[in-house]
Amino acid sequence: MKRHYGNFLIAALALIPAALIGQSLAPTPRYSDQAELSKVEEWVLSQGAVESIAPELAAILGLGSDRLPVRLKSFRTKDGVSHTFAVSTNPSQKAIVISALKTIADKMQIYSVGTAWLTDRSGILHETIRVDASGARVLPNNSRAAEFTNIKAFFVKKLEAASPSISSSPSPGTSATAAGWKQEAK
Fold it and tell me: Given a cut of 70, is residue 108 above it in pLDDT?
């Protein structure tokens, strides 16, 4: 019996390092950093609203000078900020524009204030712009990197919460990202 117990103990000790190595090589979580936006992109392309990004916004993001056709999902937060995830449907412009914009109605104009980011399905940040009443300007990517990380997480959580059997619809109204950031009031 002691002999069998000794062999068993040696075999068990030999398996422990192999088990530990196996744990470190375990598959990545369902929404890893590399794949998280590709899953959100697929969701938005399959269930998002058909819209377009204003030519001015597309131009500053380096996506051409025409309206950019997109599919998007937009969610308005309690403080009135629209978090929008827009995926280009133009085959020559593979891009994702994520934004956090609040529409402001001033005496003579309607405009948006916030930040928009250009990324791709890998989640790599390519461009950051700040939008306000005077227009849009390019910012250093590191100036809003934490906010970009938070909004990516926001959309991953929205995807995880979405039921595959229930089609989600965008929030009422047109997002500022889709319509442009400055319009004259009538």
Answer: yes
pLDDT at 1: 53
Contacts of 31 (CB under 8 A, 6+ apart): 39, 156, 159, 160
Neighbours of 155 (CB within 10 A): 23
CA angle 18, 24, 29 (to 5 degrees): 140
Q: What are the Cα distances from residue 16, in Å, to 4, 21, 23, 72?
A: 19, 9, 11, 49
Question: Considering only CA atoms, which of 132, 140, 126 is closest in space to residue 61?
Answer: 126
pLDDT above 80: residue 13 = no
Is the full-model pTM beyond 0.85? no
Residue 74 contacts residue 155 (beta carbons within 8 Å):
no
